[in-house]
Amino acid sequence: MAAAACPTAPLTWQLVWLLFCVTVQLGTNIHNDYADFVRGADTDQRIGHARATALGWWTPAETCRAATVTLSITTAAGVSLVALAEQWHNAFLWFLIGSSVFNAFAYTGGPYPLGYLGLEHVSIAYSGAGDVFVFLYFGLTATLMVPYLLTVSSGHSSSSSEMTTLWPQMALYSIQVGLLATNIIVVNNLRDRHTDVSASKLTTSVRFGRRFSIIEYTACLVISYSLVLVDFVWADWSLLRLLPLVSLPVAYREMISVIQKDGADLNEHVGGTAKVQFLFCILLSVALRLS
Questions:
Q1: Quick one: which of 220, 213, 280 has its CA closest to 250?
Q2: Tell me, what's the pLDDT at 157?
Q3: For the chain, domain boundaries
Q4: Do residues 145 and 17 make contact, with C-beta atoms less than 8 angstroms apart?
Q5: Residue 193 CB coordination number (10 Å)
Q6: Chain segment 5-58, per-residue pLDDT in tens
Q7: DSSP-based three-state secondary structure for 219
Q8: CA-CA-CA-CA torsion for 40, 43, 49, 51, nearest 10 degrees?
Q9: Does position 4 have pLDDT exceeding 50, yes or no?
Q10: Cβ of 131: how many Cβ atoms within 10 Å?
Q11: Which one of 127, 231, 234, 236 is at 20 to 30 Å from 61 when CA atoms are compared?
Q12: Which residues contact 214 (CB under 8 A, 6 or more apart)?
C-alpha cells in the first residue's frame, strides 16, 4: 500500500505539543522524585541514579513546587493547543490533556496533591501499571496527538480525508515509539525490584520477577523492529523505510546487557535504552521525511 502525502501540521501546533510532551515528562519525573521519597522507596539502599529529595538537594516541599510549576506549564500548553485547533467542544481532547496531567501526579502518587482529593493511595507505578501508562501516554498519545488534530480540525478539513487513509501507518509508528519507551521503565523496574519490595512498590518486575521483565524487554524490541519490515512493505518496498534498522546493533547490545546484568550495573542501560528509542525515532523521522 503506497503512502499518501502526509499533510503538515502548523508549526505552532507542533511547538506547543512539543512543550506539552517535554514538560509532562519533566513534571512526572520531578513529582516521582518527591513521591518515592515520602513513600519510602528512596532510602540509603537505593542503587539507582541520584535523587534530589533523597540526597537533600531539595526539600520535599521544594520538589512539590517544582513539579507543580512544571505541570502548570503543561496544562497551559494543553489549553493553548485546544485553542489553536479550535477544539473547545472536543471532550476526548480535553480527556487526553487532563488525564496526562493527572497521571503525572498519580504515576507515583503520594500525599501531594492527590491527598487533598482523598486519593493519596492512588499510584500507577506502585500498582504495577507503569508499563501500560508509558505505552499509552509516552507512545500512542505523544505520537498521535497532532495527526488526530489534523483529522478532526474543521480548519484543516482538506487534510482530514488524507489523514484518515494514513492512520494504520501512524498507529504502527506510535506502537513502535510506545514499546521502546516502555523498555526504559522495564529496565528501571528491573534494577530497583529488590528495594521496591520493601516499599510495597508492586511493579511488574516485583510482581512477576526478573525473567518476565527480560522477556518483556526483548519482546518490545522484537516487535518494534519487526514493524519496520511491515512499514517497508506498506511503502511499496521503499528502502528508505528500512533506515530505523541502522539502530538495531545498538538495540541488540542493550538487550544483551540487560539480560546479563543486574542491580546497579543496569544504571547505564536505563539511559542506554532511552538512546535506542531516540536513535530509532530520529532515523524513522528521516526515513519518512525523505520518502
A1: 280
A2: 53
A3: 7-123, 165-291
A4: yes
A5: 21
A6: 556 788 999 999 999 999 999 999 999 999 989 887 777 666 777 788 888 899
A7: helix
A8: 70
A9: no
A10: 22
A11: 127
A12: 190, 258, 259
Q: Where are the alpha helices (DSSP H) in 88-209?
A: 91-106, 130-133, 142-152, 157-198, 204-208
Rg (Cα) of the chain, in Å, rounded?
20
Residue type, position 90, single letter: N
Cβ-based neighbour number of residue 33 at 10 Å: 24
The three-state secondary structure class of 49 is coil
End-to-end CA distance of the chain: 14
Q: What is the DSSP string of 233-284?
A: HHTTS-GGGGGGGGGHHHHHHHHHHHHH--GGGGHHHHHHHHHHHHHHHHHH
Q: Which amino acid is at 242?
A: L
Q: Measure the CA–CA gap between 191 and 186, rounded to whole angstroms.
A: 9
Report whether 27 contacts 74 (CB < 8 A).
yes
Torsion sign, CA atoms 264, 271, 227, 238: negative
Say which CATH architecture domain 165-291 belongs to: Up-down Bundle (1.20)
By residue count, the chain amounts to 291
pLDDT tens string 82-130: 999 999 999 999 999 999 999 999 999 999 999 998 998 899 999 999 9
Cα 220 from Cα 147, distance rounded (Å): 24
Write the DSSP symbol of residue 111. Answer: S
